[in-house]
Amino acid sequence: MNRTMTNKINYILDHWLPPAIRDSKWLMGIAFYLVFGEKYRYYMTFKESCCYLEEKEINRYYERLADTFIDRETDLNQGCIKFICKHIKGTKILDAAAGKGYLVKLLQKTQGGGTLILVL
Three-state secondary structure along the chain? Predict the structure, then answer.
């Protein structure tokens, strides 16, 4: 599933569902359970607890949930990619938390030269 489609789903959830449903941990817990099975608890608690977790604990979250992630080259949609490519300035590229490094590799290829600094 590409990022444009997931953005549309997020828009529907954010703008069409009443907050009483969208923000209900109980109702969303059921939805997450249906999608992710027993791993739903990790998704439901991550945002609240991540700022208190050590790096090793965060890595454990990602390891436990890796099989539930959407497999795609990037989380950016085409509109974002075009905007970034059009407005890039300078010759150095730093992408911290770059995922698979899609954008940095694309920029280096399309912008020509420059310094690639990729922090995963």
Answer: CCHHHHHHHHHHHHHHCCHHHHCCHHHHHHHHHHHHHHHHHHHHHHHHHHHHCCHHHHHHHHHHHHHHCCCCCCCCCHHHHHHHHHHCCCCEEEEECCCCCHHHHHHHHHHCCCEEEEEC
Strands 92-96 and 115-119: parallel
Backbone angles phi, psi at 97, to 5 degrees: 60, 50
**Where residue 34 falls among pLDDT bands split at 50, 70, 90?**
very high
**CB 63 within 8 Å of CB 39:** no
Taking a C-beta distance cutoff of 8 angstroms, is the pair 28, 44 a contact?
Answer: yes
Question: Token digits for 107?
Answer: 């920029």
**CA–CA distance from 37 to each of 48, 95, 120 (Å)?**
20, 33, 28
Q: Has this prediction a pTM greater than 0.90?
A: no
pLDDT at 37: 93
